[in-house]
Amino acid sequence: xxxxxxxxxxxxxxxxxxxxxxxxxxxxxxxxxxxxxxxxxxxxxxxxxxxxxxxxxxxxxxxxxxxxxxxxxxxxxxxxxxxxxxxxxxxxxxxxxxxxxxxxxxxxxxxxxxxxxxxxxxxxxxxxxxxxxxxxxxxxxxxxxxxxxxxxxxxxxxxxxxxxxxxxxxxxxxxxxxxxxxxxxxxxxxxxxxxxxxxxxxxxxxxxxxxxxxxxxxxxxxxxxxxxxxxxxxxxxxxxxxxxxxxxxxxxxxxxxxxxxxxxxxxxxxxxxxxxxxxxxxxxxxxxxxxxxxxxxxxxxxxxxxxxxxxxxxxxxxxxxxxxxxxxxxxxxxxxxxxxxxxxxxxxxxxxxxxxxxxxxxxxxxxxxxxxxxxxxxxxxxxxxxxxxxxxxxxxxxxxxxxxxxxxxxxxxxxxxxxxxxxxxxxxxxxxxxxxxxxxxxxxxxxxxxxxxxxxxxxxxxxxxxxxxxxxxxxxxxxxxxxxxxxxxxxxxxxxxxxxxxxxxxxxxxxxxxxxxxxxxxxxxxxxxxxxxxxxxxxxxxxxxxxxxxxxxxxxxxxxxxxxxxxxxxxxxxxxxxxxxxxxxxxxxxxxxxxxxxxxxxxxxxxxxxxxxxxxxxxxxxxxxxxxxxxxxxxxxxxxxxxxxxxxxxxxxxxxxxxxxxxxxxxxxxxxxxxxxxxxxxxxxxxxxxxxxxxxxxxxxxxxxxxxxxxxxxxxxxxxxxxxxxxxxxxxxxxxxxxxxxxxxxxxxxxxxxxxxxxxxxxxxxxxxxxxxxxxxxxxxxxxxxxxxxxxxxxxxxxxxxxxxxxxxxxxxxxxxxxxxxxxxxxxxxxxxxxxxxxxxxxxxxxxxxxxxxxxxxxxxxxxxxxxxxxxxxxxxxxxxxxxxxxxxxxxxxxxxxxxxxxxxxxxxxxxxxxxxxxxxxxxxxxxxxxxxxxxxxxxxxxxxxxxxxxxxxxxxxxxxxxxxxxxxxxxxx
Length: 974
Prior knowledge:
By secondary structure, the protein is an alpha/beta fold. 14% of the residues lie in helices and 22% in strands. One of its GO terms (biological process) is defense response to fungus.
């Protein structure tokens, strides 16, 4: 019994000793310091709940005491969800050997006071949100062996005081924002085993002093900005297992000294600027398992041989400038090589048969080279192959049927070659095949039914071949298919209904074929379908109502087919972002339900038979950037609610029957780049507010009934390329402010009522190239000579105006001009000699006052003018002579008529006496006179006309003669 009491007494004394032992000289215990540290943390998960007065400190969560319970030696609160700053009160826990606060949500800086923990061996603060720089005071921790403060937001330089941590074995500063150089003092860390500096912004060279870290086994400095040459002193690190300098800016050649690293298993120099040849001496790295020299500027031939590097499992040399072929002795049977990546070099020759000895290969990538010839039939010797990438070469011939023996094959990339023939039916044996890329070859024939035996297929891409025939009826057996890309072939027939049973299908591209028929109702099962393109085929009929069940559809392109009926079934997807139904026979109103697709960015319904108005609900499509409703039968005004289309970049409504005024809210769409309202029935004026669209590239309001003047504000459209206002009723002058549209290359203002002169400011539009068309207006004045500055102009039309004066010779400098029309104005003088190649129609209708080829020469024109003046005088003289002669003739005829009348009287009297004999004789005379009158164009007259009628007849003849003469004198001037 006494012994029991003695035991209790000893326990009490021991506990009292612990309490006294953990007391600091100033009387405050570690207990109090830990409570102060706790008060700085936010503890959402209650990890520190037992840090309280009612419990023993050595039992607190994360706290570890020494064996005799006399000191707190370890504090581990890793992954506790703690928030807040690290308290400087840690400095009072001087017995601590380990602090692990990693993987929390701590912020603030690293307290410099931690430098007072002289017994500290491990400081683990990685994976937090700490900021600021590394405090130089950490250099005082002379017993520190592990410093891991990476994966934070720390900045500044790697402090040189790090070199004072002579016992340091692990220095992990990765995944921060450190900059500057690696300090030379790093070489003083003789015991350093692990140096991790990757994923920072370090620059400058690696110091030569790195060779002093004799015990270094792992050196990772990838993903920085370190440059210069790789120091040869690295070759002194004989214990090095891992060297990772990938994604930096190292230049120069690969140091031969790296071949001294006899224990090296991992060497990664990917993504630098190294040049020169690969040193043959690297074949001495017999322990090497992974070698990545890809994405550099290395040249020469491949000198690395798996016959030396017998432990090599991964070799990547892609993205260089390596030439020649792969050595025939590259591989021997029994090698360990499983991954060989030689893509994107300049290797050439036929398929390297030496690789067929690498029977352990699982991944072979020869893509992006200049290999050619036929694929070897012995490919099936690589029986372990899971990935075969031979794309982007010049392989010819057919796909060997032996490909079907590669039963482990998962990915087969043969695209962008010159393979021909059909797909061998043996491909159906590849039960593990997931991805089959054959696009951009010259393959033909039908798609074999055996392909549907490849039940693991997730992606099939045959784009850009010459496959014909119909789709396999059993395609629905590919239950795992996610992508089916058959665009740009010669496939025909309908879509098999079984396709609807590929329920995992996400992307279906059958465009650019000869497919026909209607869409099968089984499409309703394609609930995962995201993209479907059927454009440029001959599909017809209405859309199945079941399409409305496809809620995940985001991109749909059925353009250039023969679909008809309503598009309502496509209005059911709230995920829709792009819908293109251009060039079909859809009809009826545009469904307002499309406005429920809030993420719709592209809607093209042009060239159909839609009627009615644009749904006012479309104003809710705030993400819409492209709206094309042109070439339909849409009517009505543009609803004010459409002003909600704030992100619209292309607004195309041409060739409809819209009415009303062009709304001013269009000027409020800041991102508007193209506005085409042409060929409608818009009235009113051109809104001045359109000048508020700074990104507008094309503005076409042609073929409407707009009136008023062209707003001066259009000059604010400084990005404008095309301005087309032709065929309206616009009046007033051409605004000189258009000179600010310096990017304008097409300007059409023809067929309006514009007046005034051609603004000289137009001459400053130096980018005008396609056309300048001001024809069919009422423009007056002269043609500005400065138009000759438009040296890029290809077409110029100023016809049907009231322009005067000479054609400026400066226009002859328009060397790019291939169409010109100056006809029907009042121009005169000599045209530029460079215009001689244009047709006569380019200059007619200018009052016969233009000269020079193709018209009359100017000297000929002057001669004809003199002839014309002489002809006028001659006509006057001839006219006087004719009038005089006619008068004389008329007087003579009058005399004759009087004589005849007198004789007639006598005959009449005589006839009464003689019985009419003389009367017969006079009838002959009447006939003769009748012939004379007939020759004077009155040939149907049978009786003798009076002298007055004869006079009129003569004057009529004289008039015709005068006109005829006038015509004859004018003909040379035509």
